[in-house]
Amino acid sequence: MTGSPHEALHRIFQEDTSLFTRTLHRVLGVQMPIPHAVSVISPDLTDTRPMERRADTVLLAESEFRNQIVVVESQTDPEEQKRRRWPYYVSYLHDKHECDVTLLVVCSKEKTAKWARGPFTIGPPGNPCQVTRPFVLGPDNVPIINDLGHASQDVVFTVFSALTHSRSPQAAAILNVLAAALDTIDTDSAGFLAEFTEIGLGETAARSAWRTLMSAQSYRYQSEYACQLRSEAKAELRAEVEAEVKAEGKAELVLRVLKRRGIHVPSSTRDQILSCTETTTLERWFDRALDARSIEDVFN
Questions:
Q1: Fewest CB atoms within 10 Å of the CB: 8, 55, 132, 228?
Q2: Is the peptide bond before 119 cis (omega within 30 degrees of 0)?
Q3: DSSP string, 222-275
Q4: pLDDT for 262
Q5: What DSSP string runs through the chain?
Q6: Exposure class string for 262-287: b at 16+ Cβ within 10 A, else e
Q7: The 37-41 sheet, strands edge to edge
Q8: What are the tens digits of pLDDT across the range 208-222?
Q9: 126-172, pLDDT tens digit by residue?
Q10: Contact 211, 241 (CB under 8 A)
Q11: CA–CA separation, 231 vs 20, rounded Å?
Q12: Residue 17, Cα to own-chain centre: how many angstroms?
């Protein structure tokens, strides 16, 4: 299972190793030979020098006519170091495996996608000796899948669409059809993809929407996953309630101390104390109330 949004955007090409051919043709109109076998190979591109270079995902696509390497890079923000690394990845793998190399960059931010298209050149301006033009998939060109019929035809691509558009206003619409589309495939695969989606959405509003959808609706594939989400939601709610009760009790203690010490508390100040939910603040007010001579001493 992937552990972050960065990993999810390239790891999805490992989970469905023919996804790259379908996606390049569907999004960019690039027709690639249909491979008869695709395998994940080592992403370690380190040579004999003590400098480690590691791509995100590297696939070896074998077909009847020719083999090719596909390097999949997940890029969150523009990174100048990649201007030097990406040309190296392509040339290194081309030399090592003696076959064509395709560089595919996937982004969830439109600004990053525009930057990643390059071209990245090495050599004199106007006459570069090497030019790197990655294929780039991002929110500006990956289709928004918000129709159940289309989503059901390629569920993994729908997951990819959801992750790519995780920061866009269309994310909720994609997630709604994705949830229903997952119910059309086997439950084991659907359960895995549901969890994969949650992790891949990262710390976005879309992730909260997905968790709400998974815990509120009922699908065949949810089972343990849904139970886990409901349990977590109940635990979070319980913790919030306990925190509120704890804070309410501390607020009452502050007021009791002030009353015992004969300090007048205006109604507006009383409301301020009772509405406070930060226990550290209430504890500070309590400590001050023990020695305060006026209400101002509690807050200043």
A1: 228
A2: yes
A3: THHHHHHHHHHHHHHHHHHHHHHHHHHHHHHHHHHHHHHTT----HHHHHHHHH
A4: 84
A5: ---SHHHHHHHHHHHSTTHHHHHHHHHH----PPPSEEEEE--B---SSS---B-SEEEEEE-SS--EEEEEEE-SS--THHHHHHHHHHHHHHHHH-SEEEEEEE-SSHHHHHHHT--EEESSTTS-SEEE--EEE-TTTS-----HHHHHH-HHHHHHHHHHTTTSTTHHHHHHHHHHHHTTS-HHHHHHHHHHHHHHH-SSHHHHHHHHHHHHS--TTTHHHHHHHHHHHHHHHHHHHHHHHHHHHHHHHHHHHHHHTT----HHHHHHHHH---HHHHHHHHHHHTT-SSHHHHH-
A6: ebebeeebeeebeebeeeeebeebbe
A7: 37-41, 57-62, 68-74, 100-106, 135-137
A8: 888 888 876 677 776
A9: 888 899 999 999 999 999 999 999 999 999 999 999 999 999 999 99
A10: no
A11: 37
A12: 20
Question: For residue 78, with 0-12 CB atoms within 10 Å meaning exposed, 13-18 middle and 19 or more buried, which class applies?
Answer: middle
Contacts of 32 (CB under 8 A, 6+ apart): 20, 21, 24, 25, 61, 68, 102
Q: Taking the CA atoms of the chain, what radius of gyration do you get in angstroms? A: 27
Tokens (6 digits) for 103: 């560089």
Q: Distance between CA atoms of 77 and 287, rounded to whole angstroms?
A: 47
Q: Which two tokens stand for residue 149?
A: 């019929």
